[in-house]
Each structure stands twice: as structure tokens, then as C-alpha cells.
Design goal:
The chain contains ten helices and 13 strands. With 330 residues, the chain is of the alpha/beta class.
């Protein structure tokens, strides 16, 4: 079964409008929504677009929410983007923003146009962004851009995720995760040596990494590029967690759908919801600014981090004095 593409559209039946990817034209901010590998039908793809729509709130009418149901074998419950899908996504969403007819635009013009694109991902979706950008970078290199130029262009893109897999993404990110999620990211194991719930104790931690770092430490594989990211880890996003939640393969902590019902969320779970919403809103504000102005305004990760420090509650945020292991750095 091939991948299916579409937009969230409140005027369409079931609020979903299927599309031929080769007819796409990005004319305003677009949020490319890539969910987990189980997203193999249009209903689920649309549902994940709605998650992004809910996080964005009042600004949702200013953007397009583009969703994908992954290609999969008949009878399978898991899917992924095919190589053809990745090529189509790059050729129809990213490359046209970098070209005028057949000519490549200046780096600043590429950045300005690509700032319209935000990747919103859950779990496996992060792996797909990694593959998309790797293919995009290869194509940009083939038309004569240098590695430094490509790196600068990549900085204009942005990914916002929950429970990411370990995909290395060549653009800035905000990563959110629950330390009690046993099937999501491995942030808790890297960060807390597998004992995140003991050290966090009902709190959350936040750090802003420079390029070449991951969770405050040097990236261990120097042959791989690691780009800057904000990482926010909650002890648990759920108010009531049990041993079954923590250690079952079907971890309840893993579902991004938990954020729909705030009554179920712990205090630090609410923080993660606020973080995702605020980051998406600020990113779209920057996209609209670049859409409406001649000059390019970069979306700086450090500025977002400073704003999150000011906006998020301090009472349950962890700090250096609470950590015995001094390798844990904030």
C-alpha cells in the first residue's frame, strides 16, 4: 500500500482533504505532521494533524497542516515513507522554496522561504525527518552548494517532537519526552543512567544543547553531526502511573494523545504540553514574519530557550543543586 498525503481542512468531509503531492505549492506556513509508524490510514494522519492544530490554538487558521499515512505491506500495522515518498516530499515541498525557475536562490532567500516549513513529529516521525533532510542536503550539494551553505539553510528549518526516536536531524529541534516512557526515546537512559524517575521525582528538566552536544554532553560519535536542540524531560506525563504503565511494552506514557485530556496529566506533563504549544506558536509567528517581510529573520533556538525558561513554572523544574551526579549539567 502506497503512502497517502493530505491536508487538514475543516470544510472537507471528516476535516481531511487528500491531495496529489506533486500538486503541492507552499504559499504560507506549513506544518508537516509525521506521526508514529502505526499511522497507515488517512484517519490517523488527520488525527495527528489535529493534535498539532490543537497545540497551535488561535494561529491554526494561518497555516496548512500536511499529514501522511505511511506506505505499508498489506496486513501490516506498521509503515514508513518509501524512497519514492521521500524524493517526492523533497522535490515538491523543500526544493521549490529554494529555486526561481531553474536557478537556485541565494542562501538568505532559501532560508527565508524554508522558514515556512516546520516538522511536527511523534516517535518514528523523527526518523522520517532525518531521512528527508539527508536527501534534501544531498540534492542541494548536487546543485553546487557548499557544506557551510547547506548547514546555514538547514538552520532555517525546525522540528518539534514528542517521544522521538534516535534520528539525527540536521536542523534545530525541541525534544520532549517522559522518563517513564519505556518505548519512546532513550533520553532518560542517557541522561539519568536509567533512573530518571528516581532523580526527577515529580519534576522536569530542560537544557539547551549547542551543536555537537546531546543532553548536555559531547555527542559520542564524532563522525555524525548533532545539531542544536532544546530537550525537556518530564518524570511522568501522567498523574497516576503504575508499574504496568512503566514497564509494559504498551506504555501509556508513550501516547501523544495523553495531552488531549489535561485532567490526566501530572504537573510536569502539563509543562510538556505548554512547551509543545508555546514552541509551535513561536515558530509559526516567525514563519508569518518571514512570509510578510522582505528580509529574513532567523528563528534562534537560544531565544526560544530563554522564553521557555521565563514562561514555564519554576517550582517543579530541576536544578544543579538537586543532582548528585555532576555529569548531569543544566
Amino acid at each position: 500500500m502506497e503512502s497517502k498525503f493530505g491536508y487538514r481542512n475543516l470544510q472537507a468531509e471528516n476535516h481531511w482533504k487528500a491531495c496529489d503531492i506533486e500538486t503541492i505549492k507552499v504559499t504560507k506556513p506549513i506544518i508537516v505532521c509525521l506521526s508514529g509508524s502505526g499511522t497507515i490510514n488517512e484517519n490517523d494522519a488527520n488525527g495527528f494533524c489535529k493534535v498539532a492544530e490543537d497545540f497551535l490554538g488561535e494561529k491554526a487558521s494561518d497555516v496548512d497542516f500536511f499529514g501522511i499515512a505511511y506506505a505499508h505491506e498489506e496486513g501490516s500495522i506498521r509503515g514508513e515513507l518509501s524512497n519514492k515518498d521521500i524524493d517526492l516530499l523533497v522535490d515538491n515541498i523543500l526544493i521549490p522554496l529554494c529555486k526561481d525557475d531553474d536557478n537556485i536562490l541565494s542562501v538568505e532567500e532559501c532560508c527565508k522561504n524554508l522558514s515556512l516549513v516546520t516538522f511536527f513529529t511523534f516517535c518514528h516521525g523523527n526518523i522520517e525527518v532525518s531521512k528527508i533532510l539527508k536527501h534534501f542536503n544531498s540534492k542541494m550539494q548536487n546543485v553546487g552548494l557548499s557544506q557551510d551553505q547547506i548547514k546555514e539553510i538547514d538552520q532555517s528549518l525546525f522540528e518539534i517532537n514528542y517521544a522521538k526516536e534516535s534520528g539525527l536531524v540536521s536542523c534545530p529541534q525541541i525534544n520532549t519526552s517522559s522518563a517513564a516512557d519505556t518505548i519512546g526515546s532513550l533520553f532518560d537512559y542517557w541522561y539519568f543512567d536509567g533512573h530518571g524517575e528516581d532523580k526527577l521525582k515529580g519534576r522536569y528538566a530542560m537544557i539547551c544543547d549547542n551543536p555537537g552536544q546531546f543532553c548536555g554532553k559531547d555527542w559520542p560519535r564524532p563522525d555524525e553531526k548533532q545539531f542544536g536542540a532544546i530537550t525537556i524531560i518530564a518524570d511522568s506525563i501522567l498523574k497516576n502511573k503504575t508499574d504496568n504503565d512503566l514497564y509494559s511494552f504498551q506504555s501509556k506514557e508513550h501516547s501523544i494523545g495523553n495531552f488531549e485530556d489535561e485532567d490526566k496529566l501530572s504537573d510536569e506533563g502539563i509543562v510538556l504540553k505548554q512547551s509543545l504549544s508555546y514552541a509551535l506558536q513561536r515558530r509559526v509567528e516567525n514563519s508569518i514574519l518571514n512570509q510578510n517581510n522582505t528580509n529574513y529573520t532567523r528563528f534562534y533556538l537560544q531565544n526560544l530557550y530563554s522564553d521557555l525558561i521565563a514562561e514555564l513554572p519554576r517550582t517543579n523544574r530541576i536544578n544543579d543543586n538537586d543532582i548528585e551526579d555532576k555529569e548531569f549539567k543544566l
